[in-house]
Amino acid sequence: MDAEKGHVIMQILHRIHSPNDLKSLSLEELTPLAEEIRRFIIANVSQTGGHLASSLGTVELTLALHHVFKAPCDKILWDVGHQAYTHKIITGRREKFSTLRQMGGISSFINPAESPYDVFVSGHVGNAIPAASGICETLAKVDSPNRVIAVIGDGSLSNGLTFEGLNYVGTKKQNLIVVLNDNKMFISKRVGALADYLSRTMTSKRVRDVREGIKSTLKGIPVFGEAIYKIAKHIEGNLKGAVTEGLLFEEMGFRYVGPIDGHNMAHLVEAFQNISSMHEPILLHVITQKGRGFWPAVKDPENYHGVSKFDPDNGEAAKGHEESTYSDIFGKTLIDLARKDPRIVGISAAMTTGTGLKPFSLRFPDRFIDVGIAEGHAVTMAAGMALYGLKPVVAIYSTFLQRSYDGIIHDVALQNAPVIFAIDRAGLVGSDGPTHHGIFDIAYMRSIPNMTIMVPRDQLMLSRMLEYALKVQGPVAIRYPRENVITSPLKAGKMKPGKAEVLKNGSRAVIFCAGPLCYTALDAIEDIGDIALVDLVYAKPIDRKLVRDMVQRCSGRFLVIEDGCVQGGIGSAIVETLSDMTSPLKFKLLGIPDEFIEHGSLRDLRKKLNLDVPGISRAIRELA
């Protein structure tokens, strides 16, 4: 379905080219506009894929924000960029929305290079409040009247960075508005008409003036005034805690407002208008429905969080042959191993389904832990488990594991704790783009003492590596991509400590590779004679003897191929291994250059980076 070819009737949306166009709309027009935008998002995302359920839940919230506040002068930050499709549509990107996640098209996340309305990069949860705090500090230095608003999801509250930001903002009494979008997927579900009414009423200027007058009067009573005021505050706090969920935020220094219905446009606009004139830390708690307006996403918001192409009429995925992914194989293998060893524990950080651990969690509920969006906690907790008898397997996407780097070094590796890191989504991930490409894990893991890094070329090797990792007396990382498994895998080699495997012999030049790109390399040299191919198996330790022997046999000519950053990656490890060789070397390192890679299909990205069959073939011909 093409949203721009008449399938979505736009009676109001076609007039919206910037947030300024919302200012002249009445509340009666904003509500049908929200429904037009929902239909527009469903029609487009059904063709491009994307983060559907989250953005469908924030349509009214986004419209109310932009109706009341004056972006881009007022700064609106999104903690989770996949909630911001409506924001993109009404800030001048409607006509480009059909290019969502396509190479050269608009990003699925918040990207300041794309629009002045995108204030701060948003790909990983947790950065919005600290960034907003910094902007508040900057605006305060120049006495700017502009407001700063941070929109966070309920899952953000499991992230330590969010609480660090809340603590600082509340302590410093910064002029920040935090909007907590609670879609009932994480925190309290309690909401009702009374709480909604009280929240809107208690933020009105008249009530605030009365409240401040009573406060001054109580404090002005001779001798006992301050004591009476403290008692009144105590009573108020207890009442507020009984009616709302806001006592925690009040204790952190925020004025708590809510919860209110996040789909009632009139209530949202009224609340935003009221708090826009308040100059203190404000937390507005808004209840939304994930997937609203599209029944399949409402019914199953987890599976419609991120989707590929689907039928917009019924939500069914585009027809295609169902194939297993590396995540599936990891989950199945872990179940098989856990049946034999009761000490095995699976750990996720809010990605139970994505990492393939859902079946494990159902089969072994008492041996599965989802810590929420708290990767640092997951890693250090795993270290504690490993040092005292359990066998924790921590499954986290490569891009998210970066956030636990200190724990990996200080808590795991320094103590040589036998934690297994199942690094999912390693390498290029395609349409999610630079915030989600898992291209740094080898480089940031390889420099850590005691760390073993294994890279399976196919599903058979992944299963074998996971079984082998459980026997290693120290931390092990196994990194694998976001792809379907190899159709016709080679016979799995026997795992030997630090040993590579020669897949093809030759003497003109040798290719060193690790991971599924080994199969791409095999295809690339099919018509080129006498080229050797080595599956390194390990990114650390490197099989020094085999590498040196193969390079000498090939007169110093070699090519390294990797689905990760070249700086500090496997190629760097090979060059380090050969650094003391006296014979001349002629080599080339193929991988991710020293830059952030845009979004696009894996096919397009690999072609651009010469990591496809023609690119590898050209590189080896130039060497040999």
Give your account of this protein's structure.
- The structure is a single chain.
- With 624 residues, the protein is an alpha/beta fold.
- Helices cover 41% and strands 14% of the residues.
- It contains 26 helices and 17 strands.
- A seven-stranded mixed sheet has the order 7-6-8-9-11-10-15, sandwiched between helices.
- Helix 10 packs antiparallel against helix 11 (225-243), helix 15 runs parallel beside helix 21 (459-469) and helix 22 crosses helix 26.
- The two termini are 50 Å apart.
Label the CATH architecture of the largest domain: 3-Layer(aba) Sandwich
Strand order of the largest sheet: 7-6-8-9-11-10-15
Assign an overall shape. Answer: globular
Based on secondary structure, the structural category is alpha/beta
- Output the number of helix runs: 26
Count the beta strands: 17
